[in-house]
Amino acid sequence: MAAPIVVTxxxxxxxxHLVARLLERGAPVRVLERPGAAIDHLPLHRIDVVFADIxxxxxxxxxxxxxxxxxxxxxxxxxxxxxxGQFRQVNYLGTIHVxxxxxxxxxxxxxxxxxESILTHVRQTAPISExxxxxxxDVLGPYCxxxxxxxxxxxxxxxxxxxxxxxxxxxxxxxxxxxRSPPTQMLLDFCLGKRREYLDAELNLIDVRDVADGMVxxxxxxxxxxxxxxxxxxxxxRTLFAHLAALTGLPEPRWxxxxxxxxxAAYVSEWIADVWTHRVPTATVTxxxxxxxxxxxxxxxxxxxxxxxxxxxxxxxxxxxxWFAAMGxxxxxxxxxxxxxxxxxxIMPAEGSRGxxxxxxx
Length: 362
Hints:
Layout: E1 5-8, H1 13-24, E2 29-33, E3 48-51, H2 57-64, E4 69-72, H3 85-104, E5 109-113, H4 141-159, E6 164-169, E7 171-173, H5 182-191, E8 197-198, E9 202-207, H6 208-221, E10 227-230, E11 233-236, H7 237-248, E12 255-256, H8 259-277, H9 285-290, H10 300-306, H11 313-326, H12 340-343, E13 358-361
Parallel strand pairs: 1-2, 1-4, 2-3, 3-13, 4-5, 5-6, 6-10, 7-9, 8-12
Antiparallel strand pairs: 9-11
Helix pairs in contact: 1-6, 2-3, 3-4, 7-11
């Protein structure tokens, strides 16, 4: 039997698409997921599933035995958690455990998944590329700092000769986000009529299926120690909501929230979450503060080197909203304008574009 490819976080949004991509290529796949994670949406008859907490190094070492390659995606993707120390334990120390165990197990290549949110300076003016260097003093919030430290560790291993490659996806959208990561929750809230206002900020979006494809290409042909930026189209939140309005028939947002008001609301929301609900707040301090940074990315060099050509974000948005409806998350009939004709055409102006399964405990 061929040695398996291990995907940590393989039941997550990006991870489930990556697993599907690897299976299409005929690769044997082992998914490492946290105990209690929902896995019913995975093709359990075709994969091996190991439950292990990446905060526990011995459990991770057992899960990595005999692996051929490792894709490390497992992380807490929210911008808030309770307590905050979980970010360091999962995103940073968990990365140390996974990468070290994978290399000790003899993996010939290891891919670490970082994030775009650690790549912007306080006074960012130029478009952000894959070679951007940011000191930790410029990194916002405990989530971003934990991911910054994890990426530094991965690149340090590569400098010492380890076969490690890093990818930094921007904001992934598309069908299949059952865990409702922050970008998906923002889109869903608009479609539910909960977002009639917007912040003056820019985002870079890429389809989650193109992120998965980019990861496979980066592990197979990427240069060791290299960071690959997986991004696509830059657009403002106002423009994003306008196109969602066109898809759903909802009114376009017309009220721009002043930054001080948004930040104050985020502090209040986090206080309520910390003290009372222990649920992800509507607005996070890190998320609001990131809107003050210029998040305009230029991924052309990475995409060209990997030979990756992402699909139009208009297609991704249409399929995302259609998936919301299919999941029963939206009330009423399917949203208007979502069909083969719509999905085959870009509705967006160019805003810097180019921009039975085996389960066991570890």
